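Schema walkthrough. Field components (list of strings):
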Amino acid sequence: MDALNNLMYGFGIALEPINIAYVFAGVFAGTIIGMLPGLGPISALALMIPITFAMEPSSGLILMAGVYYGAIFGGSTSSILLNAPGVAGTVATSFDGYPMAKKGMAGKALAIAAYASFIGGTVSVVFLMLVAPLLSKVAVSFGPPEYFALMVLGLTAVVSLSDKSLVKGLIAAVVGIMISIVGIDLQTGTERYTFGSIQLLDGIDFLVVALGIFALAEVFYMLLRGGGGKEAPRNAIGSLKLSRSEVKEIAGPISRSSVLGFFTGVLPGAGATIGSFLGYSMEKRLAKDGDTFGQGNIKGVAAPESANNAACTGSFVPLLTLGVPGSGTTAVLLGALLVMGVNPGPMMLEQRPDVFWGVIASMYIGNIFLLVLNLPLIPLIAKILDMPKPLLLSLILIFCMIGVYGMSFSVFDLLLLLGFGLLGLGMRLFGFPAAPLILALILGNIMEESMRRALQISGGDWSIFIDKPISLALLVLAVLSLGLPLLKKRRKRAV
Amino acid sequence: MKTLSLKRLSVLALPLAALSGLGTAAHAQEWTPTRSIEFIAPANPGGGWDTLVRTVSRVLQEENLAEQNFAAINVPGGGGAVAWAQVARDSGNPHKLFATSPPIILVPLAGASRYDHSDFTPVARLITDYSIVLVAADSEYQSINDLFDALKENPRLSIGGGSAPGSMDHIAIAGVAAAAGMDAASVNYVPFSGGGDAMTNLMGGHIEAVVTGAGEAVGQLGEGSQLRALGVSSPERLGGGLEDVPTYQEQGVDYTFDIWRGVMGAPDMPEEAVAYYEELFAEMLETDGWERARDQLGWIDAYQNSEEFGAFLDEQQEQFSGVLRELGLIAQ
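Field assembly_structure (string):
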């Protein structure tokens, strides 16, 4: 009952009127930031450091955490409505969310995203509260060989993400890995694929690729098809209500993905984006109607949305219990905590229980706020689809450009965006799936770095990958998940 | 506080003087910014440069020291190279400053930037941090020499750091290893994507030791910690949670390493502007607001004016290129 007492203590802090105001302000600002592509939680939090400086540390963290999970919550909106992911963690949501919107089910997709986010967020806070101190061991048990194996397992999802042609899916994945290689190689300091351009030294931002290949390519595609006058009227936002059978259908994916997402978030270096992809591909394989994923399956929205919010909460485990940030966003949070005079780490639970439990309790409240805030907004926001098509397309275009420019203030990135838009269009016209490219882009970098780091530690001995039990288990899983579907296909063909 | 009110008075006096048609010769030296100052962090939000830029801007504003607003701007890319190229094009602009530290020397030495410190105007060195070597709390190594003895026997033992080979953390460990009589190039330095990443791997027992900034490590040390420090690169012991960590020199290894941070400006910045900023930053370091922020962030004041800072940078370049040559990492 210790946890319950602590939680009550936390609620005592989180329910102070000023802190309730901060939770609300945080999640509200976060939702809006999340909806706008490009304006991610990292820059928003960095801008807030001077504001939080003078605050009570618990209030400061409550506010900033609210912005963070609020942004992941809100990021699904533009993924679903415009095919333009608001934050990196919601890219996978667009795979089925956008097709749903096209079918006139935008309202339902947004509602599912909101419910899934809420459940993912809440389930993971329960985990965070009960097992955070224990989990710090799990977080550090992943070294370079384990990360490599995890990324390999993640990459096997390429098979399930390539709907028609496996070969085309693999080609897309290789292109994704090539894009992930651009920039200075961390292991040797060598420049790769930069062609002497200093703008490419840091590599290509993930969101530039995602916005180009999804949103911009969609705009081009519609233009090519003559303004899209023939398409079914999109004004049907549809009902927000879920039928009983639909609730039943998404209950499993949401609960599985919440747990999976949380544990992915706990690993420093994985996080919401990888969590959402793992959740999506896991559900696609488990589902009986897995082949309709990508065409507007409600499970394809529910899984990544619960996983990314759960991962977001999970990333607070290494931050609060070890004092190490697992992602760019939590690095900024760590910086803010240090400025406020709080040292996150093993002693934090004893030294600053007010911050630790206050923030956990505030997450319960914040998630409820988010749900209450987002549900009534859905019909209003979804009205965006009622716009005449020329207006809507221009709006997406402006959205993407502001988003990309706002990230780096670089015209070069705008040209990159255009380039990836054209690449995305070409891929669509020739039937190459975009999802494997994005997945490989996310995983490729960590996979390569972890592999080389592991080999450097082992002195070039490859057995390091099978000597470590976690790494071995993950690799076996990878082989199975790759082999079984292929076997199944072959058997089907034989029959 | 006295200087502050004087400054304010002079701000009021300037337009009056101009109005009354008094000679401006006396004021020509007293340059003041005429618009808001672009203060660039050549990296993404969250890192060392960004923290410096935001903290300085905030303190200047809170203490009402500057006539004009300092606008913090992030120009990430190429480990700083993108921002440097941008500032280098803005020769003579007195309203453009950027935060700087050893990479302004190391990145060009590695051949990844056309511009180096000599292309810009040094304004002031502000603070310094030191390099620290950590091991797991239950490690058998008790001193920096224990670690080096083990390394001599088994050169494959891996030491993790938060930056690429040939950058700060690598130089720091290679330098101390050389001073301890080892071949610097034999250290198996494993680069991670940040000091935090490296420390997590140390906690998990995946590597033998970590070299990182003392400021970044201080939160990880102390009671209940899973990590322990073997030595720090400062000339004297540090305070604030690090007072128990012996210096390398105390352990018989004659080596110090500064992770300094300062401010530079556009090329050929007018002298009056440099003088203005020098004085402004010197004044800022005296304020209570700065003291509070500095202590919280574990920084140590290390002010140098423009001239001293420029000479110091030349020295550093020589020292770093020596270490890099020994490591075989210098660009031809």
